[in-house]
Write a structure and sequence with these properties.
2 helices, 5-stranded parallel beta sheet, mainly beta
Length: 130
C-alpha cells in the first residue's frame, strides 16, 4: 500500500498486486513513491520540486520513500542541478527538497535515531526513458 505523485498514478500498480493512490500523503501511509527533478551524483542527493502535482508530503511523511530516478536526469554536481533548474524553470518553485538518505539525528544523547524528521528508508529505482 502506497501513495504516489500524479504522474506515477497510472503505471498499472493494481496489475501487479499493489494498491497505490495518486494523492498527497497523510500520517497513515507507509510508503511514498515520487519522481525527482534530478539526482546529483557527487553527493547522492535527490532534488525534488514541490507543487500541486508533486506534494512534498509523499517523500516526507511515509516511513519508506521510493524515488523513481530517470537516468537522463542525473547531473554531476549541485551547481549542475541549479543550472538545470534555472534553464527549465527560470526561478525557484515554492519549495525544493534535497534528500540525501533517510532522516537521522544524533541530537538526543548523541545517539543516532533514524526517521526522526522523515522517512526511515529511502530507495532509488533508476529507469531509462521515463
Amino acid at each position: 500500500q502506497a501513495v504516489c505523485w500524479q504522474a506515477l498514478g497510472d503505471l498499472g500498480w493494481a496489475g501487479v498486486g499493489l494498491h497505490v493512490e495518486a494523492r498527497a500523503a497523510n500520517g497513515d501511509d507507509p510508503v511514498g513513491i515520487t519522481g525527482c527533478f534530478c539526482a546529483i551524483a557527487e553527493t547522492g542527493t535527490l532534488l525534488l520540486l514541490s507543487g500541486p502535482r508533486t506534494p512534498a508530503s509523499v517523500s516526507l511523511l511515509p516511513e519508506t520513500h521510493i524515488a523513481v530516478v530517470p537516468v537522463g536526469r542525473i547531473v554531476a554536481t549541485m551547481e549542475d542541478a541549479f543550472a538545470l533548474l534555472r534553464a527549465e524553470h527560470g526561478g525557484l518553485p515554492r519549495a525544493i527538497n534535497f534528500i540525501s538518505g533517510p532522516s537521522r539525528t544524533g541530537d538526543i544523547e548523541q545517539t543516532i535515531v533514524l526517521g526522526a524528521h522523515g522517512p526511515c528508508r529511502v530507495h532509488l529505482i533508476l529507469v531509462e526513458g521515463l
